[in-house]
Automatic annotation (TrEMBL):
Location of the active site: E259 (proton donor/acceptor)
Protein name, per record: Metal-dependent carboxypeptidase
Organism per entry: Celeribacter neptunius
UniProt EC number: 3.4.17.19
Keyword Zinc set for record: yes
Annotated residues for binding of Zn(2+): H258, H262, E288
Family the UniProt entry places it in: Belongs to the peptidase M32 family.
CDD domains named among the record's database cross-references: M32_Taq
């Protein structure tokens, strides 16, 4: 009886959380600009209801009386997620949770204004408040745990079981080979890129074709535009956004494929898990593994770009390259750039590692908010060899910190590592994959991911989810081997 009562309570809380997520989607896509202040109050109100349900003393009573040994694996996983949520949420005062929801909602709009103006000072006071509140939350979450610092306490919300120390070791192994590969590429002849102007309505039409080709179910989703592409929702309502640039169609193409990876993960989770803690992606790192393998190992492969080249020529005519092989090279060009979301596979993780180090300093109190622009620019020039030209291309480019998502950024690189492992296992199981991708058929690859990983949602812990899918312990080696082989072939060294 206790488990049934707990399960009913959790399902209602999960449903309310999905409603809150729909408010976020609306704010990013359709909300009138003048509604920002009211939306902040709406977020604070629903967050107070959610927080009250997550810390309801009845949950503690049920958790104390349920005999885990009497439950099946589904029930045990529900209990694990619920206990983790309860223990974390009971540490955070209700007024702090509500204030965080209000401030981060308002901060998002102010960040967008500051980014458009290239004016960090316009955002700095609000950002300082966001950091202050998140540090207070981290201090509460850290109490009674073995987390080594405040950042680790926040990181558990996105990748349970991970830590800054473990990630630093992994990223330390990534960096030398990535830098060496980039240096080789920069010393080679560069392939030409696309040219021309691309109608934005036609770009949106193509995004629909590509999302469908990767298995996105439009009966349970939709595509809209946003400043920063994202996926939202779970179960039977999973929405994605993209953005268009008339000078760069690859931006919309690959942001769409990326978000489709996220969305298909959510859509393919077992219906038995609907509106339960198991009915959504188990962690941000595992989630990112899906978006990155869709976008890169599949979407930027020589085989799939052969199909995409035909789609591009049919829709836009002349695009500045004259063969599928030239298009493949153009899609995978490695060039200096400021924007993480537009970065190539080789340099992408260097963007993430920069943010990982800086946000740990911010949360752990060794870097002041007002010193962030200088710290960012100095690190960026050291890592990428170019100076940041404007702050919208620097520390204001991402929405994550403005909305308080500290601890999130390293999951992007962790997801790349996981994607490398999944790709190695997938290729071993489907040797004929390239022949299918060349026809625009991703079905065997996406079905493999659905069968081996996506359907299970939050049934297992994050790392165990990858081990179950791949059959081996994850490491950075498969990703690095894949990158070195791919780009040596493109650049001829």
């Amino acid at each position: 009886m206790s488990f049934d009562a707990l399960f009913s309570h959790v399902k209602t809380t999960t449903a309310l959380g999905q409603i809150a997520g729909r408010l976020s989607w609306d704010q990013e896509t359709m909300m009138p600009r003048g509604a920002m202040e009211q939306r902040g109050e709406e977020f604070a109100a629903i967050e107070s209801v959610l927080h009250a349900r997550k810390v309801d003393p009845k949950l503690g009573d049920w958790l104390a009386t349920i005999d885990e040994s009497t439950l099946d694996p589904f029930g045990q996983a529900v209990l694990r997620h619920t206990r983790r949520s309860y223990e974390r949420n009971t540490k955070v005062p209700a007024d702090l949770a509500s204030e965080l929801a209000r401030v981060t909602s308002v901060a998002q709009g102010i960040w967008a204004e500051a980014r458009a103006r290239d004016d960090f000072n316009h955002f700095a006071p609000t950002f300082e408040e966001v950091v202050k509140l998140r540090r207070e939350e981290a201090a509460a979450l850290k109490e009674g745990t073995d987390h080594s610092d405040l950042w680790d306490a926040l990181h558990q919300d996105y990748e349970p079981g991970s830590s800054g120390a473990v990630l630093s070791e992994m990223f330390g192994a990534l960096r030398p080979r990535l830098v060496a590969l980039r240096d080789k590429i920069m010393g080679a002849d560069q392939p030409k890129g696309l040219s021309g102007t691309y109608d934005e309505d036609e770009q949106m039409a193509l995004t629909g074709i590509l999302a469908g080709a990767f298995g996105y179910d439009f009966d349970r989703g939709r595509i809209d535009k946003a400043v920063h592409p994202f996926s939202s929702g779970a179960g039977l309502d999973v929405r994605i956004t993209t953005r268009t640039n008339p000078e760069d169609p690859l931006n919309s193409i690959y942001s769409t494929i990326h978000e489709t990876g996220h969305a298909c993960y959510e859509q393919n989770i077992s219906r038995d898990y609907l509106l339960t803690p198991l009915g959504e992606g188990v962690s941000m790192g595992v989630h990112e593994s899906q978006s990155r393998i869709y976008e890169n190992q599949l979407g930027r492969s020589r085989a799939f770009t052969e199909y995409l080249y035909g789609q591009m020529r049919g829709m836009f005519g002349e695009i500045g390259v004259n063969s599928a092989e030239e298009f493949y090279a153009a899609v995978n060009r490695v060039t200096p750039g400021y924007i993480r979301t537009e970065s190539d596979e080789v340099q992408y993780n260097l963007h993430v590692l920069l943010r990982f180090d800086l946000e740990r300093q911010i949360i752990n109190g060794t870097l002041d908010v007002m010193d962030l622009p200088e710290a960012w620019d100095t690190r960026f020039e050291a890592d990428f060899g170019v100076k940041v030209d404007k702050i919208s291309n620097g520390c204001l480019q991402d929405v994550h910190w403005p909305v308080g998502l500290f601890g999130y950024f390293p999951t992007y690189s962790l997801g790349n590592v996981y994607a490398g492992c999944l790709h190695k296992a997938l290729r071993a199981d489907i040797p004929e994959l390239d022949a299918e991708l060349a026809k625009g058929n991703t079905g065997s690859a996406t079905a493999w991911l659905g069968e081996h990983l996506q359907q299970f949602g939050g049934l297992r812990e994050p790392r165990d989810t990858i081990v179950h899918a791949c059959g081996f312990e994850p490491s950075e080696a498969p990703l690095l081997d894949y990158l070195e082989e791919k780009f040596a072939g493109i650049y001829g060294f």
